[in-house]
């Protein structure tokens, strides 16, 4: 693959991938609605609102692969989510259909299944249980991926990312943490696989606490190599002992599941 488009490139994961994928793919097209650092060698920067159909068609043209990170990444109003996540994700897949069907890695989220309890071990057949309007929008994105594969052959990997930060920030993240290196390896595997189809992966590192089973996608050969366990002592020392009756502790989605419904004013 020569030219990789990264949407949401000004965000936390976008900035990490910009740095780590630079030596792997010859050209990166980096896009966001927010300001981006100036383009370096092998980079192009494009300011684009994912909700703008024409702009997204131009954005995708000429790209050989897409890592679609852009959008609202937390709970928010339906209107905000509608533009960035629903319209935006539709636009990305539609643009891929119209411009040579590049593969897409879609940044889905564990909040698609956040209302499953932590005692459950989920796999590729587990039902959606979104814990927020945000999680609901990621379920929609995964179904857009399904539709565009079944009808048009656009291949994609939807990654239900757990918590991808430099280090786990709380006790829940000891189970949900995905290291940046493991995420980068996953991206390489997705774009190099002889056949990707329409696949979903749970995005967690090789943590001791495991809620998710990726057996259904073993054919891809992605095996996480890092673990949150090395941070356990530090995290436990810095955070209070959890109350087992707290919904934020009962459900996989944590605070997203425990929070009330987001209402527009
Ligand atoms: P982030 O919030 O730091 O970055 C998202 C980026 O999308 C921002 O730079 C923002 O300006 C951009 N964006 C928002 N609306 C846009 C629009 N209308 N048009 C164009 N760009 C727009 O989020 P982060 O942490 O980097 O996450 C990246 C993706 O991964 C998101 O889609 C998020 O939902 C998903 N994800 C991240 C997780 C994590 O642990 N970091 C966990 C699960 C999912
Ligand atoms: C997400 O989907 C969010 O984008 C991220 O900011 C974290 O909150 C993460 O889930 C998580 O569940 O830890």
Automatic annotation (TrEMBL):
<feature type="domain" description="NAD-dependent epimerase/dehydratase">
    <location>
        <begin position="5"/>
        <end position="175"/>
    </location>
</feature>
<dbReference type="Pfam" id="PF01370">
    <property type="entry name" value="Epimerase"/>
</dbReference>
<dbReference type="InterPro" id="IPR036291">
    <property type="entry name" value="NAD(P)-bd_dom_sf"/>
</dbReference>
<keyword id="KW-0520">NAD</keyword>
<dbReference type="GO" id="GO:0016491">
    <property type="term" value="F:oxidoreductase activity"/>
</dbReference>
<protein>
    <submittedName>
        <fullName>NAD(P)-dependent oxidoreductase</fullName>
    </submittedName>
</protein>
<keyword id="KW-0560">Oxidoreductase</keyword>
<dbReference type="InterPro" id="IPR001509">
    <property type="entry name" value="Epimerase_deHydtase"/>
</dbReference>
<comment type="similarity">
    <text>Belongs to the NAD(P)-dependent epimerase/dehydratase family.</text>
</comment>
